[in-house]
Amino acid sequence: MRKSIIAGNWKLNKTCKEAVELVTELNRDLSETTDVDVVVCPPFTALRDISDVLVDSKIGLGAQNLYWEDSGAFTGEISAPMIKDAGAQYVIIGHSERRQFFGETDETVNKKIRAALAHDLTPIVCVGEMLEDREAGKTEDVIKTQFSGSFAGLSAEEMEKLVIAYEPVWAIGTGKTATKEQAQEVHQLIRQLLTAAHGESTAESIRIQYGGSVKPDNIAELIAQPDIDGALVGGASLKADSFTQIVKNSLGVAK
Ligand code: PEP
């Protein structure tokens, strides 16, 4: 049985003060939650302050991106050792906004996964199709291409250390959630790709989150699906009450 993982992607939101306020509330409401892994992913600038609040907390901390080199002449970039040093244990890689607006490719995603793993950070690797892909019946092809490019050359042991997030781009920040059937179909496909590449036991151990307009009132039906192991939450993770409610509504849901 895979333990669910619910992560909040705060994107380009929250000053350090606002971030500390939010995480202080979450810590009060969720610090004893052990049945699901809870992670917050603030902007880089707030990582250190938040990690101080989360000392001894069950809530995990993640960054939203990284660069694959450890150090050097790469102005504006942040490396895995820096993220680790700031107190994080996770890093989101290949979010669709990075693919769409910042030139992220499956090849750079692959390099970033390797850098994260080399420094003991857990990558949360995002894949997902655009609306035009879905409408053209190309969802499966897109996922297969992203899968083979992003995870190229990774061993079963390495794959077991990461989390995958399926995020249909058309459902991100739009209020349009994939139906539970649409989401399960792609999660099952990803599980099949994992099985074909690395065998059943590895495939069964890897957690696959769903992301795209997850809210307190839809998390239960999504997480009830056999291959959905949690959620990557954007908008609804920016307020303590909605994120807490998502976590609480995910608990005890029969698969
Ligand atoms: C996301 O950014 O990963 C996301 C799923 O956003 P939202 O929940 O706002 O759709």
Descriptive report:
The structure is a single chain. The chain is built from twelve helices and eight strands. It is of the alpha/beta class. It has one domain: Aldolase class I (TIM Barrel, Alpha-Beta Barrel). The protein has an eight-stranded parallel barrel with strand order 1-2-3-4-5-6-7-8, surrounded by five helices. The mean pLDDT is 97. Phosphoenolpyruvate binds at residues 9, 167, 172-173, 211-214, 232-236.
Give a quick summary of the entry.
The chain is α/β, with parallel strands linked by helices.
Secondary structure layout:
Blueprint: E1 4-9, H1 16-30, E2 36-41, H2 47-53, E3 60-63, H3 80-85, E4 90-93, H4 96-101, H5 106-118, E5 122-127, H6 131-135, H7 139-150, H8 156-159, E6 163-166, H9 180-198, H10 200-205, E7 207-211, H11 219-223, E8 230-233, H12 240-250
Parallel strand pairs: 1-2, 1-8, 2-3, 3-4, 4-5, 5-6, 6-7, 7-8
Helix pairs in contact: 1-12, 5-7, 7-9
Phosphoenolpyruvate is lined by residues 9, 167, 172-173, 211-214, 232-236.
